[in-house]
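Quick board copy: two proteins, each given as sequence then tokens.
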Amino acid sequence: VAKQNGVALTGVAKISGQTVSLYENTYSMHFDGTDESLMCGQACNFGFDDAFSVSFWYQVTAQLAYDTFVSKTMWQGNYPLGGGVGWSVYYNNYFNFTMEGSNWAREATISNGFWAAVWTANGVAVPGDWHHMVISYNGDGLSKNNMKMYIDSYDVSTPYSDRVDGPGVLTNDAEFVIGDMDWQAGPDPPTSRSRNGNIDEVAIFDYELSQSDINLIYNGTPPSGGGAPSPAIWNDGTGVPGNLNTLSTPPVNWWRMGDDWTSGTTITDQIGDKDGTMTNMDGEDSGVKAEVPS
């Protein structure tokens, strides 16, 4: 359900004052890898007892260390006294999904288990290609075994680490951020971990997505490599963003990353009330680009 002038519109989205089918996807957002992000308030403020999933599309670029895609993490200081509270999805040699519960005592990480997210037949990532990712947590307690990662419909989850000693919480005061982390608390915050490249169609679900849900969101034939690491083929999938309203339970937040944007610094939350605010992306460098999965 999209919104126009505060009125819900079933099966349509808003772009330049007109309505279009939600299957149409014209824009994504580009982040410069330095200081750009989309700040989305207190979206996705779940606890360890809450199941949730996040879906987004990303474009392959020259990956940076700690190249962050989506996050809701509050920094509390460097090891061993601090650590983070929350969760994040980032690239650092692998794609990682990390959940942290403060004081370095409660942390679990899964990765995709191999050097890059996508491969050609000779094991080289293809700049410009688009791929779909889903991360999910089933709410059964902080553990790498309760977390999942999917790329182009394939479950590529590889349990990496668990540190679950002591008390901890997942909820925090940081904003849900697309393209970076919110280092708004604690001493000695790390340097920027901004995304270097494009992101499209970001959605939050308050439940664990099933394989059939993920297949519907991917909306195409998965790559022929079968989800295996290099040298499997990862660049021949046919997925394009699907209509998230066709899911049996739609997301609670959905940012179309430019399809409802005309000017200014706001990206509308199509379903919830957590509109995103562009940071360091105003003026001519709006971040909205006519580059999408196809």
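And the next:
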Amino acid sequence: RAMLLHHGEPGRPFALFARDPTQEAEYDAFCRLLGRHVRLLDLGAHYGFFGAVALARSPEARVLAVEPSPAAVPILRANLRLAGGEGRAQVLAGAVGARDGELAMLAAGPAGEQYMFAAAGRPDAVRMTQYCLATLGRHAGWTPTLVKCDIEGYETAMLAGANLSVLAAWRAPLLLELHRAWIRREGGDPEALLRRLAAAGDRPLQDSDAAAEVSRLGMGSFMAVARGSEEPLRFIELRYNGAAKDKAPVVLVGKGITFDTGGISIKPAPEMDEMKFDMCGAASVLGTFRALGEL
């Protein structure tokens, strides 16, 4: 996977997309959503990885990249230009929020890859111009066909009010990086945000928290097998609320792999047909829940 680098500083975060399971899953999901005529609205574009990929993959692609960091914006502009974005890419320096105005923000500095985050009430915060989605759509001059959102824990404030109606009207897939821990630390509820999106008709197409949790727990074997698939790993949690609340739950855990992409060349031919059983653990749990629903 080619990486376009303007100078050395973006090298480390760009390289994560080639070796970190969480970032790789996000990248793969993004590529599956790209079409020849993609119109990408990149919210929290940082150094421009996703915009550069979209521009490099199709001469018909158009990008509007929104980024508040004064340190990152020049690198962002250069990377989009190197990806062939002259006349096809726009960069808007600012933040995104529920309404036009200003947002108090702090910079993480060089050690934090120059990311900026909302910091209401901080005396050392700087005021950045904030744009709502309707304004960004008018600025672009086209209707987005894909929205990527990575705004460092500010998702609950941005994905609200009129912005939800705008997203619904665009009918564009939403690639959302949901910072669950950050949202909870600020007193928010990430699950409530997902319910709000679902009620508005919007469904995030990628939530990389499952891969992040697997990485944190040191589940190396699970991550290694999952990297053999184009689909990101998933935890599916089902609940059947049929018992009294004071009773301890019965928990069923099952692993499922629909096809072992490495096995076809290293396993003896007589055993290849048994690869279909690699999904039996997850299938047994799903089948149990289906049976519960039919009883």
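Board note added afterward: The beta strands are 39-43, 62-67, 89-93, 95-96, 101-107, 116-118, 126-131, 146-149, 174-176.
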